[in-house]
Design brief:
It is built from four helices and twelve strands; from the N terminus they run H-H-H-E-H-E-E-E-E-E-E-E-E-E-E-E. By secondary structure, the protein is α+β, with helices and mostly antiparallel strands. It folds into two domains: 53 residues; 130 residues, Distorted Sandwich (Glucose Permease (Domain IIA)).
Length: 239
C-alpha cells in the first residue's frame, strides 16, 4: 500500500509545481508574450514562402502567370492609344439629297453650353422642356425633301413612332449609328445595305416637334448615347 502511495506522489508534486508557477504575477504575461512570439514567427515564415513563390518563373508556378517588365500588359493609357489608332470613325455627309436647299433649325443640346445657348435647344412638349438630342434640317421652301443616308452602313431599324414619325436607324463602321426621324415615309427596310447619299425617305412633320415645319431630325449615337452630329459631319454646311 505504501508503495502505491509513493507512486502517486510525483503527480501530486507536478500539479503543485504548475499551481505554484501560475500563481506568480508574471506567469500569464509570460505565456501571452511567448504565444505572440510563436504566432509572429509563423506569419513571417508564411510571408517569406509567398515571396519565394512570387520570384519563380511562370513555368515554376502552376496555373499562375507572373508578368515582368518585359512582357507586362499595356497600361490604360496605352490601350486608349491603341483604340484611337485602330478605331477610324467614319465621316458622315449631310443627310439630304444633293439638289435640296436647306438650313439648320433647332440644334443639339450641349450640356457644356451657357444657359442662353441651351435654351435654344429645348423642345417644349406637354408643358415641359426636353433637351434636343440631334439637329433639325429644314428645306428653304418649307416643304418636305428627300433624305439621304449619311454614310455607308446597314439599316437596323425602320418603324413608325407615334411621337417622332417614321424612323430609320443605320449602323456604320465602329458601331456608329445615324438616326433619321420625322420622316413622311421610309424607302428602305431593315437589313438593307445602303451607300452614302442613297435616298432612304422623305422628310415630314411629327407630333413631338409639332411647331416645326417639315424637317429631318438627325441624330448620331455612339454606344447608345446621342452625340453632337457636327463632330462627324463633313465641313461643308448648308448655305
Amino acid at each position: 500500500m505504501e508503495d502505491k502511495r509513493n507512486q502517486k506522489q510525483p503527480v501530486s508534486m507536478k500539479k503543485s509545481t504548475w499551481r505554484s508557477i501560475l500563481g506568480k504575477k508574471w506567469a500569464f504575461p509570460a505565456i501571452y508574450i511567448g504565444t505572440a512570439a510563436i504566432i509572429l514567427a509563423f506569419v513571417m515564415w508564411y510571408q517569406g514562402s509567398l515571396l519565394n513563390q512570387a520570384t519563380k518563373t511562370p513555368q515554376q508556378i502552376d496555373k499562375v502567370t507572373v508578368v515582368n517588365g518585359e512582357n507586362k500588359p499595356a497600361t490604360v493609357h496605352e490601350n486608349e492609344e491603341a483604340v484611337a489608332v485602330n478605331n477610324t470613325t467614319p465621316t458622315l455627309a449631310w443627310p439630304v439629297a444633293k439638289e435640296v436647299m436647306y438650313e439648320i433649325g433647332m440644334g443639339f443640346f450641349n450640356e457644356e453650353a451657357n444657359a442662353d445657348e441651351q435654351s435654344k435647344s429645348l423642345v417644349k412638349f406637354n408643358d415641359s422642356f426636353v433637351p434636343h438630342t440631334g439637329i433639325d434640317l429644314i428645306s428653304t421652301n418649307g416643304k418636305g425633301f428627300d433624305v439621304a443616308a449619311a454614310g455607308d452602313g446597314k439599316v437596323m431599324k425602320v418603324y413608325n413612332d407615334q411621337l417622332v414619325g417614321n424612323l430609320v436607324e443605320i449602323e456604320h463602321a465602329n458601331k456608329l449609328v445615324s438616326v433619321y426621324q420625322s420622316l413622311e415615309k421610309a424607302t428602305v427596310k431593315e437589313n438593307d445595305e445602303v451607300k452614302q447619299g442613297q435616298i432612304i425617305g422623305t422628310a415630314g412633320r411629327n407630333v413631338f416637334e409639332k411647331d416645326a415645319k417639315a424637317h429631318l431630325h438627325f441624330e448620331v449615337r455612339m454606344d447608345g448615347n446621342s452625340v453632337d452630329p457636327h463632330k462627324f459631319l463633313k465641313e461643308a454646311q448648308p448655305q
